[in-house]
Structure to design on (295 residues):
């Protein structure tokens, strides 16, 4: 991920660094290269345009162009603006006063929702929390089994009342159990679809109304690039999204989704997933990603 973008941008920066004097024209040549590199990395075209315009506004400035190392100044501006793309976020989950904390997991089928539910449970245990998980994916019995298995691997309890195939009552039951037995966090895994459909949205709205989640995490498969972002926007409009988990960052995704998600959907990246193991979840740190892209 980001390898190709990173190589391209570093070439641009090396060329800029060699210029003793920068002119609006040389800046424009570099901006054109940056624009191409971002588009080829599958960054949303509106995001690319706004990004390049902002860098241009700041770079084509007499002070910058006349400075001792104008190339480095432009590189710094690119770095600042790339950080700004990720919004003001520290990654992970924001502190809440509500107990129990209720986290609703949202996403398309195959995006990595169930795996991420297990990863998040494990992450929470490491933070000293006591999570309980529940699957509301009643259409695919295998989904409930999968979550039970993942919960076992993570060493957490899965709420799974035998024979209860009502998504809302399963989620409410988990709330009840958490309150009775003293769990402080409930992670509600939900059904996904290959494509968004109204029936699913109605179901998610009903679960949301029943459990009043504190967090609504949308799991986006980084490999699906712009499509993942489009669906995130749809989920945000219908159900609401408070944070995004970008899964499958270990694949050969070009990285555009990660760089576009905040501008397009308006919510920060909370976590990234980079493998199938339960350990492969990290709170998102924009500065680390920017360093990876820009060197
Ligand atoms: P769900 O349908 O959204 O619940 O998706 P699953 O959790 O069942 O994941 C679908 C597939 O993606 C499974 O084979 C997972 O092992 C795999 N997967 C999930 N997260 C990651 C990740 O971060 N990296 C990789 N390489 N595979 C992942």
């Amino acid at each position: 991920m980001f390898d190709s973008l990173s190589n391209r941008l570093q070439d641009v920066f090396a060329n800029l660094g060699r210029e003793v004097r920068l002119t609006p024209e040389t800046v424009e040549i570099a901006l054109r290269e940056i624009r191409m590199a971002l588009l080829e990395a599958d960054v949303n075209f509106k995001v690319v345009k706004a990004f390049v315009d902002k860098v241009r506004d700041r770079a084509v400035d007499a002070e910058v162009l006349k400075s001792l190392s104008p190339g480095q100044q432009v590189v710094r501006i690119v770095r600042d603006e790339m950080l700004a793309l990720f919004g003001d976020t520290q990654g992970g989950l924001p502190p809440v006063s509500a107990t129990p904390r209720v986290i609703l997991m949202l996403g398309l089928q195959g995006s990595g929702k169930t795996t991420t539910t297990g990863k998040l449970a494990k992450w929470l245990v490491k933070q000293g929390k006591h999570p309980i998980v529940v699957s509301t994916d009643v259409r695919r019995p295998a989904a409930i089994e999968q979550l039970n298995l993942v919960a076992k691997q993570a060493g957490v309890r899965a709420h799974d009342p035998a024979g209860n195939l009502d998504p809302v009552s399963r989620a409410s039951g988990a709330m009840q159990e958490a309150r009775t037995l003293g769990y402080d966090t409930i992670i509600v895994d939900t059904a996904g679809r290959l494509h968004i459909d109204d029936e699913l949205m109605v179901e998610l709205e009903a679960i949301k109304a029943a459990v009043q989640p504190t967090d609504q995490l949308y799991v986006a498969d980084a490999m699906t690039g712009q499509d993942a972002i489009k669906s995130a926007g749809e989920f945000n409009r219908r159900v609401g999204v408070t944070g995004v988990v970008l899964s499958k960052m270990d694949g050969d995704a070009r990285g555009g989704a990660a760089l576009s998600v905040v501008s397009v959907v308006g919510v920060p990246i909370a976590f990234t997933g980079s493998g199938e193991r339960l350990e492969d979840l990290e709170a998102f740190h924009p500065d680390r990603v920017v360093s990876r892209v820009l060197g």
Observations:
- The first strand starts at residue 101 and ends at 106.
- The mean pLDDT is 92.
- Strands lie at 101-106, 131-135, 157-159, 185-189, 215-221, 243-247, 269-273, 281-283.
- The CA atoms of residues 50 and 120 lie 34 Å apart.
